[in-house]
Design brief:
alpha+beta, Toxin ADP-ribosyltransferase, Chain A, domain 1
Length: about 220
């Protein structure tokens, strides 16, 4: 976790930013070791707060009005979460990652090329460990992709996107339509291909939403 926090490089989301570090109950850091030392004193409390925040978000998302799948037949996501700036962080963000079982001394890293050969191969079903944000803006998703781009289809036979909710009014960028899906949402990987965006290779997944499979 310390390594991931230190490597974050999104705008205003760096270990040197006071507001970002305050989310982890820490002060701005000058090195990965600094992050590691601070985290060691607050990790248990941060975990408790994260679980509470996740529970609150799940309950909000499954109760807010759903988004019409006929109005929005496809949604797009720049696939890497803010906590992952390399492709090797992508698979560990999913429930199916075997390393979730520990040991806790091992980093949550899994070579992306290996994941494509098993848990991310076409036909696989993946389950979100954290919320995923989507929009109807493909070009915007390409800007944020960090090596992974997701085009998502709704479940067959559904008039709405299940589990997810329109959170545009709460978004940091209210000019962009935004839909969030909670942890325990499942998707089926239909296919993937490597494309080029701004001269860099990007893995473009086509996925189908299966729905939310958590508690109420």
């Amino acid at each position: 976790m310390a390594k991931t926090i230190w490597q974050c490089c999104y705008t205003d989301c760096t270990a040197r930013d006071a507001d970002f570090m305050n989310m982890f109950m820490m002060k701005p850091a000058t090195s990965e070791q600094d992050v590691r030392q601070q985290l060691g004193t607050v990790a248990d409390q941060v975990q408790q707060y994260a679980l509470a925040e996740t529970t609150l978000q799940i309950n909000a998302l499954i109760r807010l009005p759903k988004v019409s799948s006929s109005e929005y037949p496809q949604l797009y996501r720049g696939g890497m979460a803010i906590s992952g700036n390399t492709l090797d962080n992508f698979a560990p963000s999913l429930v199916e990652f075997a390393g979730n079982a520990g040991p806790t001394s091992e980093p949550l890293i899994y070579p992306f090329k290996d994941a494509l050969g098993n848990m991310l191969q076409p036909g696989s079903i993946i389950t979100l460990k954290t919320p995923w944000s989507f929009s109807n803006d493909l070009e915007g998703a390409k800007v944020w992709q960090r090596g992974v781009l997701v085009t998502c289809k709704p479940p067959e036979g559904y008039d709405v996107w299940p589990g997810g909710a329109d959170i545009t009014a709460f978004s940091l960028n209210p000019d962009t339509f935004e839909v969030n899906f909670p942890p325990n949402t499942r998707l089926e990987i239909e296919s993937y291909e490597w494309i080029t965006i701004q001269g860099k290779p990007v893995c473009h997944f086509i996925m189908r939403m299966l729905g939310y499979f958590g508690g109420n």
